[in-house]
Amino acid sequence: MLESSKPRHYLAQFYGANDNPKVRYRKTNLAALAVYPNGGVKSFSSLQVRIVGICETGALVQAGAVEFLPDHFYLSLGNNDLVFTCAKRNVMKDKMVVTFSRPEDTFFINALAKGGLPLTSLKRMRASTVVRTRTARSGHNG
User: Fold this and answer.
1) Is the distance from CB of 56 to CB of 70 less than 8 angstroms?
2) Residue 26 CB: number of other CB atoms within 10 A?
3) Do residues 47 and 65 lie in contact, with contact meaning Cβ atoms separated by under 8 Å?
4) Does a structural domain hold residue 131?
5) Mean pLDDT, 10 residues at a time, over the chain (142 residues)?
6) Considering its fold, how many domains does the chain have in total?
């Protein structure tokens, strides 16, 4: 008998609504932190990751211990200036495909993808009006 492929984390079921089989990741090289609750909601752990691809509905994340991240976590850019709520979709060796809880604006994603190499920090990207607007909308001062 076949079983339904139900998401392992209860919040991940809502992230599938944005699935698009023709997703086009823009190449990028952003330094970020994957932040997740550690044994409850009173403390958090983090893992430094690289965002190597990004699109409106998700990202391709790379790290050494990416398989140990929980099914639900947050990607934080800068000093928590930008935070994306994420769900784990697919893990391959040292890479992972994640889905954002809600789609992001195309102009914002393009601004993030234009960051230079090597690893780009959010501070250098603030020159972009789109990134400044997104951080201001998040309630942070830039």
Assistant:
1) no
2) 14
3) yes
4) yes
5) 49 52 81 85 86 94 90 86 89 91 90 64 53 56 44
6) 1
pLDDT of residue 85: 93
Burial class, 141, CB count within 10 angstroms (exposed 0-12 / middle 13-18 / buried 19+): exposed
pLDDT at 95: 92
Q: Find, among 51, 58, 56, 69, the residue nearest to 99 by Cα.
A: 58
- Tell me the Ramachandran region of residue 80: left when phi exceeds 0, alpha when psi lies from -120 to 50, beta otherwise: left
- Say what the pLDDT of residue 2 is: 42
Burial of 107 (0-12, 13-18, 19+ CB in 10 A): middle
Rounded CA separation 88/34 (Å): 11
Closest CA to 77 of 44, 40, 42, 121: 121
- Identify residue 137 by its one-letter amino acid code: R
Q: What are the residues whose beta carbons fall under 8 Å from the beta carbon of 109, sequence distance 6 or more?
A: 26, 54, 55, 56
CATH number, domain containing residue 109: 2.40.10.430
